Each structure stands twice: as C-alpha cells, then as structure tokens.
Amino acid sequence: MTRTKQPLTNNVEMTTTIHDTLEQGKKTGFSTVEAFGEKVEREVYEHLTNHKVQHHTAVINKVTARAFWDTDDPVGFALSKPGLHEIKNAFSAVYSFHLPSGAMNYASLLPASLDRVEVKIYDDTIDSSDVSRVDELADQVNETLISPSFKDLELKKICYSRELRKVYIANSNGLNAKYIKTHFNLLLTMGLGGNLIDIAENGAFSRQIEPVKLVYRAYNLLDSLTETPLKWGPKEIALVLSPEASAFILKEFSEYFKIKGDKKFMDLSFPAILNIIDDPLLDGKAGSVPFDDEGTQVGEKVLVRKGSFIQFISDVQTAFQNGTRSSGNGFRNDRSLFPTVRFSNLYIKPTVLSLKNLMEDAGKGVLVSLLKLKCVAKEGYVFSAYGYKFSGNNLLEPVHFHFSTTFLNYFLHIVKVSKEMKFFYSTYNVGSPYVLLEARQKSPGMLTI
Amino acid sequence: MKKFSVDLIDDTYSGYFSIDSLDKKEYTIKSKTGILERNFDDQWTGSSHELTSIKDAVEFLDKKINLKLKGQPGDFPFHPAKIAKENQYIFDFLQDLGVMEWKVIFRGLRSRRIIIKNGKEKRTGFRHFSILIKVRLKDHRNFIEVGEGGGGGGQGPKFNQNGLVSRVKEISDNHKLAENHDVSFTGKIPVILSPGDGAILFHEILGHALEADYIYLQRSPITVSHIGRQIMPANVTVVTEDKNDSFFAGIACDDEGETPKSACLIEKGILRNVISDSFYKHLLDLKNCGHSRVEDFTCLPMPRMYALYLKPGGCDPEELIASTPYGVYAREFGEGKIYFDKNVFYFNIHDARLIEKGKRTIPLGSIMVKGDISEVLGSVEMVANDFRFDKGISYCFKNGQTLNVRVGQPTVKINNLWVTSDAND
Predict the structure, then answer these.
(1) Nearest residue to B418 (alpha-carbon basis) of B363, B365, B349
(2) pLDDT-based confidence at residue B422 (cuts at 50, 70, 90)
C-alpha cells in the first residue's frame, strides 16, 4: 500500500496511547476503563466510464474510551490521534457528568483475558498491490462486456478500495489484545436498458475479488428488472430465492436474533432443514474477527439448529441486562461510540442439494433474483420482487410482484436449501444459498408467505 | 479543466446525551481533527490524515494560516447535567404518557473548517443543537420521532418544551383515534403538505434528482438537456439560499472553497441550475457549482445539498384545503425511499388527517404516500403564502455520509399521489 506522508507531531504508537488512556481514566477517578484503538489505512480508486475520478488515501488513528464508576451508566469519548493532554481533558469533561442512581453496571463483565484463536483475515499482498490493480480489474470487466451475451450491458463506474485495519482493545480488568485485518472491495455500477445497479464483492483477500463473476451477477439482476406483473393460475406458488434475495431477507429479519428479540421464538420449531449460524472465525470473510470490539472471545454461534431456536446474540451490556454472558457480538461503528449488537458472518447453512434440485422439486414457480424492501406495514414486511418464471430447469419470462411476510412466516415456509453459498457485505456479512419457499397468491401480483 | 489544489482542515467537536424510559443514560463526546488534501490534474488525487489539532494541520501543510479560531473544545456549551435538569419537564411528561418505551436524544455539534484553494484561504463554521424524542406507542412496531434543532444561543441548547410535548401528545392521541376508523384509498388523490418540514419531500425527489453525479450516471430522471426547460408547474420556484435563514449562516463556501453563482434551481417551473461540485461542473459543462460537501475529512466529497427552499406562492393555506373534495393533510414527516431507476418514491407520514369536502376531518395516524417522481414534479397544483423553515433536524444520507440539511416551504398541494395505510396497495 502506498504510504503517504505522516503527520509531523504526536506520532506516538497506539499501544502507548491505549496505555495512557487506561492510566488517565483511573487517575481521573473512574473505577473501570476500556480503551479501543483503530489505525486504518485506506486507499480508494474511482473511475467513471472514460474518466478517472479519484485516487484517495486515508490514514485514521482513533481512540475510543468507555469509563465506569462503581455504579451507574458509563460515559465515553472518541478522539483523533490524541496525546496525553487531550486524553486527560476528555476524561475530565465526561467525569463532570455524573447523575448517580446507584444502579449496578456491567464493568465487571468486561473480559479480563482472551485465548488465542486462528482466523485468516490478513493478506500480505496488500503492500505490493498498487494502482495497476484497479486498471487490471477494469480491463477484466471491459473484456467480459465485449461478449455478445452481455449486449447493451454498460459499465458506468468502478470503485476499488483496499484497507489495512489494526485494532487494539484493552481494559483495566487486565485485557490487552490486538489484531490486523485487510479488506478489499470492488463496486461496479452497471447499466442495462435504462436501469442501473450497484454491485459489490468484498473479502479479506485480494484474490477473492472476481470482476467477471460480478458482471454475470449484474447482468442477471438487471435483466430480471421488468414491470411485467406476475400472472399465475394456482393459488400456491413455489418461490426459489437467489442467495442475493435470501440474504437480503435474512438481514432484514436479523434483528429478531438479537437478545432483545421476542423470547417466545425460543419455543418455536422451524423446518428441520433450517440452520442459521453467525461465525466470526470463517477464513477470508469480510465479517471475520478473532474477538469483538469489547475483547470478548468469539466463536461459531448456532442460532437455529435443525429448525430449533438455540440462542440470541448479545454484547456485554445487553447480556448483563438479560442476566447472561456476551456472545461476542459487540461491535463499534462510526455513529455510536459504545458497542452495539451486530453480526459478523451471519448465514443460512447450505445443504447438499443443487439449485437444479430445488427447481426440479418445485416443478413450476418463480426464481427471485432481486428484492427491494417496500415498507414495513402492520401485517409485516412488504418486498418488491424481480425474477423469472421457471418450469423445471428452464427459465421463462421475467416477472415483477410484491409479497408480504413476517419473521415467523418466512422461516416457517422454507422448504429446501441449496448448496450454492454466497456472502454479501454491508456493515456485516450475510450469506445464503438458494432457498425454496411456499407462497400463496393474495391478489394478482401480490403474494403472501 | 485547470489544475488546482484544495486543502480542507476539519475540526469537529460533538456531544451526545440520551436518556430513556428505563432511566438509562448515555453521554459521549467526540473530537475529530484532520486534513483532506486534494489535487486536481485530470483526476482527483487526495489524502486524509487524522491529527491532534489545527496546529498540527498547519505544520503538516507547511503553510501560513492564522490559527485564531473562536472557542476551544471545552468551551462548547453542551453540558448533559444542565440539559437533563432543564428538560426534566419532557422526561416527566413522557413517563406519564403511558407509551411502550421512549428515548430522548440531545446532540451538539460544532464544526470549523479552513479551506485553502490554490493558496487562498476561506473559513466556514457550523453549530447545531438538537433534541429528538422517540416514542413507541402501545401495539406499534416503529418509533414516532419528534424533534427540533438549531444553532442555540450563547448559553447552548434551548428547546420549545411545550411545543415538543404538545406535538408528541397530539400524534399519540391521533394514533389512538385513528384506530377507530378504517379508511382505505383507491386511486391517486391530492396530498397537502404542511409548511416547513413538508419540503423534505422536495429535497428527496427534486433535490437529489438535480445532483450532478446522479445526472451524469443517468440515475436521475433529469438530464442536462432539461436546463432551460419547464420541468415543474409555473407556480414553483426553488432556491438554495434565503437571507432570512441563519441555519447555514456560517457556511461561506462549500468544501472546495466555491460558492454558487446562482441560488436558483427552479424559476417558475423552469430548471435553471443543478447541484454540482467543480468536477461534475466540468464533466457536464455546467455554469454553476458550489455544492461539494463532505461529512468529515476522511470521506470523499460529492455533490450534496445544503438548503432547499420552495418559495411562497399567492394562495391562502386554507384555500388549498377548501379546494380539496377528498384528500390527505400531512403534518409530521418520517423517512422516505427513492428509487430513481423505477421513477418511484415512498414517503412515511407520521401524522395525517383526512380531508373531506374541503375540511380536515378524522385523524389517519401513520400513512405512506407513493408517487411517480416525474409525474409528481408536474403535479404541484397550489402553493400557499405561509412559508416556514423546517424544525431544524433534517438530515441527508448519501453514499454512507450523513449531513445536516435545511428545507423550507409554505403549505403545498400535490395531486396524483397514492396514499395507503395498508402497505400492500
């Protein structure tokens, strides 16, 4: 990675800053202090058709602190590249706010140590790749577009980024840990017949970025965009959701798998084919980490096993509120300083069946390639769906329709799951194979699951 | 396009304080200083660096800059204990309201920027305080949000507590009353948007459609060839500047150091200008720029709106209602979704009333309006004379960056909108 010139002052090591944060927090009078540091080096290339637009590098050094009194809610701050003076001032500022209620807090539940785990999330080629990589990717896309299969498909914009992220977490309970991670992203804006689509590929390794596959996906999605409404005789319709469509719904419904979710789900039985997992230790995945942003040990979490609800995910705070232990899902984002509950790599576990098996079993139905959330209504989520009618293994004409569903109804109506797995990254990683569902026709163009 | 360089020194201090129905409190502060260096020579090359202070930035740039900026982070008047004490009335009211849950969020932001373009220095400043009351009514899935914001006085955030409480109470009562009525709509009907915050709809469907990057990528239904042509009815004039509004008074230029040559976007329905930065100005051969914005120094600038005002017309607001045999009056506005590729938008209205025979009648609670973007732009039938600014908490989210924006309008009547309380329509 191209190293840009470094700031002239205060170029201290992050480990020193973390140490200073813990020390100053205790000196200020807090009983427990947590320090989270990030060093990020990011490089972005953006090209419009026939125009190079941007080459941008960013170097970000940030420290976030969370400080606890013996009782009551914690306070916190985030500072860019702070020195001792700035850290001291920030602790003084937040210390002045104390509205004691005597309520117990979760400071004692912050982890004191971590076991070492192996997860492959660092690509050492990040230093050697340069601007030629984006030209190479653009060439591969343009070469693919020459094929008559992609007639009228246009590349409007290409954006490629690579990021090196070093994460540090320490607290006054004794924890001190760090990891290093790389992230590569290719975002294409493609156009076909007046429609545009943004389509991206993400991974911890540069070699995971495959522009040709992105072009195929873009074409399939854009080609399915039609206003032709679905006309269907029988009341029952078999829907096969693409990994993209299925992952989209899984993400929309993922809130239900957080600890604040309705505990009545614990007693429910979904179809036995259904296994839902959150696994931060998958090699090479964009959502993988060796520990969460609170330093909690992570591992594979089976949320639904053979249709039975097994567990919710949580961070330290929500686990404390519910009298349990953190599942290792406390992650920070730019908007909130304190960790919030978030998934790492959430996915529906694939089976041995192929897409062909699913379509043959269904006989006739609709293969849904793309979904958009229309709204959340009283009766549930309403999705706008684009796809193709199919008969056996043959895809027929593209169709458009809407369907409404709820968290419960959706998962209760999954009949089969395929083996072709694909992850999609946005804030966290969500993956799914193809899934076969049973839907009912409520009115022309409107289905319900 | 000539070579040039722009350096943006960004110094932002923000505070967040929240309290909820379980008496859970959160107080955090953020201090962020850094620099975004950019050079244009056929393409942009740039770099961002996080720094400890503006002094660091000056040393980093090795340029002569006057360091005297007003105020230090500690001087920023955002003190949670004081805010909590001053707003106890709101917390007590919410506690007695009998809702499922509530949360009140206070935010304070101070942003100071120095923009150096080709060696010439300009400064901008923005200060904003806001309160957001989130209430989840019994048997409701989503929160209703009521808030207000502004620059605050020298003492810091002051809010119209009675006004906020009245709005929450009215929305809550209207939702309860709406449960007794089962109203369904068929076909397109007129919707009257209340003055002020209603303009967020124009921000979404008109403002974003006029952003030069969306125009260049053909995401927008508007093209450069529309400039000089009628795209809205002659009663519509839309501008980006209002001398009576102090909301963005400290913003003397955009984040590239440019100011728009003209503040007029739509003049009597004719498209005069689009919203652009200098890059897309060059690419699309436009006359105007001055709308390059960036959330902070770590992000990439792009064409964005600051303010968008729909100028007042000549009608009395009551005339708009009286002229409507059957329609909807929209009062409190939620979020929307715009699909330029499908030429369609959806917008949530948190508090609406039915209009029957020219009179406001029963409350409808929350509804959703849907429309065809191009058709709706051409369907502004009446514009009243009661112009108001929004309540000061309008935000815009684009490509991962969130910015404060400002809107304003008088009461406006739009025909040809689908209205539904049943989202399956």
Answers:
(1) B349
(2) very low
**Phi, psi angles (nearest 5°) of residue B70:** -65, 135
* Residue A293 within any structural domain of the chain: yes
pLDDT tens digits for range A57-110: 998 889 999 999 999 999 999 998 888 999 999 999 899 877 777 889 999 999
Q: Is residue A6 part of a domain?
A: no
- Residues with Cβ within 8 Å of B331's Cβ and at least 6 positions away in sequence, in order, are B194, B349, B350, B351, B352, B353
Token look-up 């914009």 returns A157
More confident position, A389 or B156: A389
Please state the pTM of the whole predicted model: 0.90
Q: How far is A81 from chain B (nearest CA, A)?
A: 5
Determine if residue A380 is left, alpha or beta; phi over 0 gives left, psi from -120 to 50 gives alpha, anything else beta.
left
Nearest CB among A9, A10, A97 relative to B81 is that of: A97
Domains in chain B: boundaries: 4-178, 189-420
In chain B, the percentage of residues whose pLDDT exceeds 90 is 66
> Phi and psi (nearest 5°) for A79?
-130, 145
DSSP annotation of B153 reads B
User: Per the CB < 8 Å rule, is B30 touching A225?
Assistant: no
Residue pointed to by tokens 């007695």: B96
Q: Are B331 and B196 within 8 A, CB to CB?
A: no
Residues A399, A318 share a domain: yes
pLDDT value of residue B201: 94
**Run of H or E including B125:** strand B120-136
Give yes or no for a contact between B350 and B337, defined as CB atoms under 8 angstroms apart.
Answer: no
Of A220, A247, A267, the position where a domain reaches its end is: A220
- Please name the residue that has the structure tokens 């959703």: B368
Which residues have CB under 8 Å from B88's CB, separation 6+? none
Element holding B104 (H helix, E strand):
strand B101-117
Residue A230 has a pLDDT of 86
Confirm or reject contact between A44 and chain B (CB < 8 A). yes
Q: Which residues in chain B are contacts of A38 at CB distance < 8 A? A: none
Contacts 24+ apart (CB under 8 A), A323-328: A324/A259, A325/A109, A326/A109, A326/A292, A326/A294, A326/A296, A327/A278, A327/A296, A327/A301, A328/A280, A328/A291, A328/A292, A328/A296, A328/A297, A328/A298, A328/A299, A328/A301
User: In chain A, positions 247-306, which contact chain B (CB-CB < 8 Å)?
Assistant: none
- Per-residue pLDDT reduced to its tens digit, B248-281: 999 999 999 999 999 999 999 999 999 999 999 9
Three-state SS for A115?
A: coil
The domain at B4-178 falls in which architecture?
2-Layer Sandwich (3.30)
Higher pLDDT pick, B32 / B75: B32
Could you report the per-residue pLDDT of A157-192, keeping only the tens digit for each?
Answer: 999 999 999 999 999 999 999 999 999 999 999 999
**Confidence check on the interface: ipTM exceeds 0.90, yes or no:** no
